[in-house]
Amino acid sequence: MRRASAWLALVVSTAAAFASPAADHAVQRLLTVPDDSAGIYRVPLDAQVYLAARSPRLDDVDIVDARGQAVPAQLFAAERVETPAPRRIPVPWFALPAASIDRPAGLALAVERAGDGSVVRVQAQVPDAPVATRMATSWLVDTSTVDAPVAALVLDWAGVPGPVEATYRIEGSDDLREWRVLQAHVALLDLARGGQRLRQPRMPVDASARYLRLVPLAGAEGLVLTRVEVEMPAQAASPAAPLWRELQGSALSAAGRAGFGYALEGRFPIVSADIALPGNGTGEWTLYSRESDDAPWVRRAGPWLAYSIGSDQRSPPQRLDATVRDRHWKLVPGDAQAAPPVLRLGWHPESLVFVARDAPPYRLVAGSARASRASAPVAQSLAAIRDTRGQDWQPPLARLGESVPLAGEAALRPARDWRAWLLWALLVAGALLVTGFAASLLRTPRA
To answer: What are φ and ψ of residue 209, in 5° steps?
Structure first.
């Protein structure tokens, strides 16, 4: 009994060791997190992760803690659009003599301009105002060199040590003679209370004008501008440039009419395709893919005209209707082709978002024939966080380290069905037991 108990304890401990999710993966990557207190992180996947993965859905890519236990994680699609930040460029400005904030329109300007229309010198005369009338400085902003509509002015100022709450009217002109109101009431703020500060230096314009005039309305006494920038409208969102995998093909038949075959290593999320023709060339192509050798081919793009003429004339890449992770690809030409072209498959890195527990450091594990990432409501948690921090908020980025072998090729072999073996063993043992009872009964003499 003692010997049997020892063997049972050994079996249980061995099974517990192999129950760790990390032990069922081929490779691992150590993660470096920027902020230990964030609690949730985003890991952009690189080419090494896709090369190690085996699952068509990337279920064998997971995050584990220092104990080798999986933490809540979910795969997120790639961000395929890039919205450029608004451009800001400094522009010259000129201070106009102090004008009555009750009668700002009484300014008379004498402006000297260069040949391109830019302002060189400004002289202004202000009608006499009562002594009791508050005085403030108007500003002339030269936007004649800006080749786009002005979205806003961003100002920096000095001369007022205390809180600032100044309001202006923004006027625009193309000839410095006729002025029109662009914004009737805009405010500059610089307030502080209890160690917190609220500063608003941006004045929306949303108009086109060669010259802008800032006319003070209230609270602008003593304000001295030190810098003026023009904010240009943000450009329209454009698709992010994909990363490319270049594949060499081989003919699928002697005549080449059946197409050229290509093998993709790794589970890359393919979203676009391109053909690199040798030298000058043109032709019509259709792209197909499939998961295994015995699966039917599925058309992914085309037929489309691919061409390469000179050094800068190339056909644009083709967008796929859906993200595809198939391993086998085929190009079918519209006419006879002597040699297979280079097939370029474009992909965008996805991200694995995980919730950190109290057992760092964390590791990314990938490549397994028997392990699968557990389902976790990370997307719902992320949506709740964005309700309080803003819809553009993103979890801090965790950095991937070098790839280190874990279980290696053993993790890529399918797991044996021990339940079937156990069932057969029980059946054989039962049959032997019944045979033993029968033999015992036959040897026993009748009473």
So the answer is: -160, 145
Per DSSP, the residues of 13-79 read: HHHHHHTSGGGG-SEEEEEE-S-TT--EEEEE--HHHHHH---TT-TTEEEE-TTS-B--EEEE---
DSSP state of 430: H
**Using CA atoms, how far apart are residues 282 and 72, in angstroms rounded to an integer?**
50
Closest CA to 366 of 411, 326, 416, 414: 411
Q: Are 224 and 188 in contact (CB under 8 A)?
A: no
Residue where the block lists tokens 């893919």:
289
> Can you tell me which residue has the tokens 């990432």?
373
Please give the structure tokens belonging to residue 96: 């106009």
Q: Which CATH number is correct for 243-347, 3.10.20.740, 2.60.120.260, 2.40.160.210, 3.30.310.50?
A: 2.60.120.260
Q: How far apart are CA 258 and CA 100, in angstroms?
A: 84
Burial class of residue 149 in the structure, from the number of CB atoms within 10 Å of its CB (0-12 exposed, 13-18 middle, 19+ buried): middle
Please give the structure tokens belonging to residue 39. Answer: 């609690």
User: Domain extents for the chain?
Assistant: 21-77+350-412, 88-231, 243-347
Same fold, 88-231 and 243-347: yes
* Spatial distance between the Cα atoms of 143 and 91, rounded to a whole number of angstroms: 7
pLDDT in tens, the chain (447 residues): 344 334 333 333 333 333 455 678 889 999 998 877 788 999 999 999 999 999 989 999 999 998 889 999 999 988 655 556 678 899 999 988 765 444 444 445 555 666 555 655 555 554 444 433 446 789 999 998 888 889 999 999 887 777 889 999 999 999 888 999 999 999 998 888 887 888 889 999 999 999 999 999 988 888 888 999 999 887 655 567 899 999 999 988 754 457 899 999 999 999 999 998 877 888 899 999 999 988 999 999 989 998 888 877 888 999 999 999 999 999 999 887 778 899 999 999 999 999 988 788 899 999 998 888 999 999 999 889 888 888 878 899 999 998 888 877 776 777 655 556 667 777 788 788 878 777 776 776 765
Candidate CATH numbers 3.30.160, 2.60.120, 1.20.1070, 2.60.40; the one for domain 88-231:
2.60.120
Distance of alpha carbon 248 from alpha carbon 267, whole angstroms: 17
Return the closest-CA partner of residue 408 out of 53, 25, 26: 26
